Amino acid sequence: MVERGNPRVGPVQTEVDRRVGSVEVLAGLLVVVLLARGPLDAVLGTPIVQTWTTVFVSVVLQAVPFLVFGVTLSAAIAVFVPREFFAKALPKHPALAVPAAAATGMVLPGCECGSVPVAGALVRKGITPAAALAFLLAAPALNPVVLAATAIAFPDRPSMVFARAAAGLAASVVMGWLWLGLGRTEWIKLPDHSPGGPRWRAFTGAAGHDLVHAGGFLVVGALAAATLNVLIPGRWLQAVADDPVLSVLALAVLAVLLSICSEADAFVAASLTQFSLTARLAFLVVGPMVDLKLFAMQAGTFGRRFAVRFAPATFVVALGCAAVTGTVLW
């Protein structure tokens, strides 16, 4: 007599055998590294690779503490601070609510990943969109964590902290007022939002998501900064850096493409020593307000019609404020 359970053993065992876990992947990588140890030593020992590694590691290690601190506080504010708090704290008049909301962003830590959904929640609570958008731009660009990171990244240039705060605040307020004068309600299409679950679970989920998401962009930014320092010929970078107009525009566009988290971008900007302070200021002002990931998040939160109008206008205003501030100060 044949047992009924025996035929199932084969397929189950085969399915288990086919699974490849993280331990197996790690073991395979270690074997590959050991087999290629000789060629790897030769490559890693070259001066250009050592310089690249030094720049990359230094940027990441300096930025990670601020990144962790920033996303933790951002998640705590998004989950534990009542949304009604902002409605009660802001002035009733829309024109006055815009600078007040921007100032609120300066004292409440938050990164780009957290400011977009918070701004959407503010609009749902009845706050004028102009004030919510001013907060959206100011919070990731001007909060205490970002300014502290900027001060550490530019220890010999304390004026960079003031310049970043002044230009960022001006850009946030100008964009809020522009929305008051030119914006249309039908451009904003907010999806239904009904968060649920325990607060601590929401907090850990938000913090973990933002840390992984922003950390990935930090690594990409550090890779790009290290590559710019070692692979691109110095005369090319110097040619761009020597042009006062082209250098500012180039770093502003680079900030949009790299999409680095605002808690970490100061360390990348500090490594771009070929460029002027004004150009690096443009990198710091434009990046937290408009980049590729922000465009995607704004389109998902407020709608595509909003994003295709708001992002280009923000780029022009932020770039102009940075250029004017840098020209006046330096």
UniProtKB/TrEMBL annotation:
<dbReference type="InterPro" id="IPR005524">
    <property type="entry name" value="DUF318"/>
</dbReference>
<keyword id="KW-1003">Cell membrane</keyword>
<feature type="transmembrane region" description="Helical">
    <location>
        <begin position="52"/>
        <end position="81"/>
    </location>
</feature>
<dbReference type="GO" id="GO:0005886">
    <property type="term" value="C:plasma membrane"/>
</dbReference>
<feature type="transmembrane region" description="Helical">
    <location>
        <begin position="21"/>
        <end position="40"/>
    </location>
</feature>
<keyword id="KW-0812">Transmembrane</keyword>
<protein>
    <recommendedName>
        <fullName>Permease</fullName>
    </recommendedName>
</protein>
<keyword id="KW-0472">Membrane</keyword>
<dbReference type="InterPro" id="IPR052923">
    <property type="entry name" value="UPF0718"/>
</dbReference>
<keyword id="KW-1133">Transmembrane helix</keyword>
<feature type="transmembrane region" description="Helical">
    <location>
        <begin position="211"/>
        <end position="232"/>
    </location>
</feature>
<feature type="transmembrane region" description="Helical">
    <location>
        <begin position="161"/>
        <end position="180"/>
    </location>
</feature>
<feature type="transmembrane region" description="Helical">
    <location>
        <begin position="306"/>
        <end position="329"/>
    </location>
</feature>
<comment type="similarity">
    <text>Belongs to the UPF0718 family.</text>
</comment>
<feature type="transmembrane region" description="Helical">
    <location>
        <begin position="130"/>
        <end position="154"/>
    </location>
</feature>
<dbReference type="Pfam" id="PF03773">
    <property type="entry name" value="ArsP_1"/>
</dbReference>
<feature type="transmembrane region" description="Helical">
    <location>
        <begin position="244"/>
        <end position="260"/>
    </location>
</feature>
